[in-house]
């Protein structure tokens, strides 16, 4: 299997070009609204408070997440909208982009835990990255979710 060359770029909201923002929203809607058959409003006005990690392969956005400082979404820092484009899956890009998000938050907010609202079916995926479950399964946009957290000392750098 050939090695993928992904170019990752961090940007805050004001640094995103119109084309970048459009590509992000387009890919998020393809994955979360169309693929997962989950009608919800993706443009939730939280993007303005987030740092955005864009992963490009051959100038095409194939991986993405948004990261939040402590006190924005939760008491701790947070990751969300983690995704890999459908034709780029099965090559560990999900773990790669998530680990980059974890590393970013640990570097910038080393004393804060990372809290995520994970789709319950992905609990094992996040366990492998050091996250632990907290509380019971709950519905979010008609999909089972569970809160997960990563203590600062557990973060793999």
Describe this structure in words.
It is a single chain. With 157 residues, this protein is an alpha+beta fold. The chain has one domain: 3-Layer(aba) Sandwich (Aminopeptidase). It is 25% helix and 34% strand. It has three helices and seven strands, in the order βαβββαβαββ. It has helices at 18-35, 93-108, 123-128, and strands spanning 7-12, 51-57, 60-68, 77-84, 114-119, 132-140, 143-150. It has a seven-stranded mixed beta sheet, sandwiched between helices. Helix 2 links the parallel strand 4 and strand 5 (114-119). The mean pLDDT is 93.
Write the layout of secondary structure elements.
Blueprint: E1 7-12, H1 18-35, E2 51-57, E3 60-68, E4 77-84, H2 93-108, E5 114-119, H3 123-128, E6 132-140, E7 143-150
Parallel strand pairs: 4-5
Antiparallel strand pairs: 1-2, 2-3, 3-4, 5-7, 6-7
Largest sheet: 7 strands, mixed
Mean pLDDT: 93
What is the oligomeric state here? single chain
CATH third-tier fold name: Aminopeptidase
What's the CATH class label? Alpha Beta
Low-confidence stretches: none
Sequence of secondary-structure elements: EHEEEHEHEE
Strand content: 25-35%
**Apparent shape:** globular
Helix content: 25-40%
Short description:
The chain has 157 residues and is α+β, with helices and mostly antiparallel strands. It is built from 3 helices and 7 strands, in the order E-H-E-E-E-H-E-H-E-E.
């Amino acid at each position: 299997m050939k090695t993928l060359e992904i170019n990752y770029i961090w940007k805050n909201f004001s640094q995103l070009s119109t084309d970048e923002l459009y590509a992000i929203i387009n890919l998020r809607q393809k994955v979360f609204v169309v693929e997962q058959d989950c009608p919800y409003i993706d443009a939730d006005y939280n993007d303005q408070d987030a740092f955005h990690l864009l992963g490009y392969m051959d100038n095409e956005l194939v991986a993405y997440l948004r990261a939040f400082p402590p006190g924005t979404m939760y008491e701790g820092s947070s990751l969300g909208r983690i995704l890999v484009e459908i034709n780029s899956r099965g090559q560990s890009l999900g773990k790669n982009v998530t680990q980059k998000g974890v590393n970013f938050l640990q570097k910038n907010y080393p004393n804060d835990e990372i809290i995520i609202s994970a789709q319950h079916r992905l609990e094992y995926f996040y366990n492998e990255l050091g996250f632990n479950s907290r509380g019971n399964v709950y519905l979010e946009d008609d999909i089972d979710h569970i809160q997960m957290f990563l203590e600062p000392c557990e973060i793999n750098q």
